[in-house]
Amino acid sequence: MSLPAIATVIGSGTMGPGIAATLARAGTQVRVYDISDEALARAEKSTAFAASVLDQIGGDSAPGGSVSFSSDIAVALDGTEFVIEAVPEKLELKKSVLAQIEGLVGADVIIATNTSGIPITTMGEALGTPGRFIGMHWSNPPHLIPMIEVIPGEATDAAVTDRLVEIVKAFGYHPVIENEIAGFVENRVLYAILRECVALVQEGIVTQEALDTCVKWGIGYKLAVVGPMRLLDMAGLDIYQSVSSYLNKELDASTETPSVITESIAAGRLGFKSGGGMYDYAEGDVDAKRADIVAGLVAVRKALSATTPV
Ligand SMILES: NC(=O)c1ccc[n+]([C@@H]2O[C@H](COP(=O)([O-])OP(=O)(O)OC[C@H]3O[C@@H](n4cnc5c(N)ncnc54)[C@H](O)[C@@H]3O)[C@@H](O)[C@H]2O)c1
Ligand SMILES: Cc1ncc(C=O)c(C(=O)O)c1O
Questions:
Q1: Which of 158, 182, 206 is the endpoint of a domain?
Q2: Could you tell me if 135 and 192 lie in one domain?
Q3: Is there a domain that residue 310 lies in?
């Protein structure tokens, strides 16, 4: 199982640095490109931080890996074997970036996208050679969550899917191959959970602190160890039938983004990145919370690696 010798990450915001650090630790020379010099400067720091977190997890660090940063896309793509696009989730922007990439790389270079759920076939329309294009959906934070959704579009060559699975396994992550569907699998499940959680808080059924406690120490902890399909076996399918027969029709089924979210965004409250969102954060609180989350994820990942994969 071999990794690409040289890979390029296009877009160095929330996701790019952790992706770069993960591939570099496995031995790949990673080039990171962004249109924003400020984003590149921030990414240098967050890539170094992600690398230090990977040291905490332990495991092998392959020789030869490195990360370099460039504001010149031609430099970042020169000689590359594998490209991961991680620019904002806007279809037209992604299409134009993909076309730009295609014009600068060799015909055999795989182009992957980290889209959270835009159909791969739709994005692939931007390319003259869509057979080389595939979804590679990392979960945030990408250097800590060792699962990647692999989503071929209608035009993706089977050999490209096979090669991506090989690459994912080579850096020690679990590849999950899926048929194409909007939102893919992980975000369909996550957004079903988030829709119900936000509705319960917005309707005043529960405070957000109590909701977070319930999910973290209840289903969150449990689902980290037992997947939903096996949880059904653990609970009993008859129990699921009884409860779902009266509960499913009560669950939130709204199709719009809830007002508690749109009003927060309108007020400039986006979460950690703006210093406030669902919660308020005083000076230093965001860094402390991020450190707490990283420590928890490192500990849980170590514990889970001693259990069966499914
Ligand atoms: N944030 C998450 O939790 C998460 C998780 C999984 C997947 N994703 C997906 O990954 C992708 C990136 O998300 P993110 O959260 O890192 O976004 P982000 O907004 O944090 O970062 C995007 C970066 O792309 C750069 N950029 C914009 N236009 C560009 C261009 N033309 N060329 C190069 N760089 C450009 C921006 O300057 C920015 O630094 C999106 O498709 C998103 O849906 C995000
Ligand atoms: C809220 C939210 N939306 C999308 C994604 C990934 O595409 C994530 C994540 O990876 O955690 C997320 O939390």
A1: 182
A2: no
A3: no
Domain limits at 202? 186-304
Please indicate if the annotation marks 94 as binding a ligand: yes
Q: What is the pLDDT of residues 173-209, one digit of tens each?
A: 999 999 999 999 999 999 999 999 999 999 999 999 9
The tokens describing 95, both together, are 């299409």
Pair type for strands 110-113 and 133-138: parallel
- Decide if the complex's ipTM is over 0.95: yes
Measured in Å, residue 206 CA sits from the centre of ligand 1 at: 33
Q: Ligand 2 pocket: which of 139, 264, 265 to mutate (most atoms <8 Å of CB)?
A: 139
Residue position matching structure tokens 């690409």: 4
Q: What does the alpha-carbon distance between residue 287 and residue 282 come to, in Å, rounded to a whole number?
A: 10
Specify if 129 maps to a domain. Answer: yes
CB 115 less than 6 A from any atom of ligand 1 = yes
Give the DSSP letter of residue 220.
I
157 belongs to an annotated ligand binding site? no
The verdict on whether residue 187 carries a ligand-binding annotation is no
Are 174 and 62 part of one and the same domain? yes
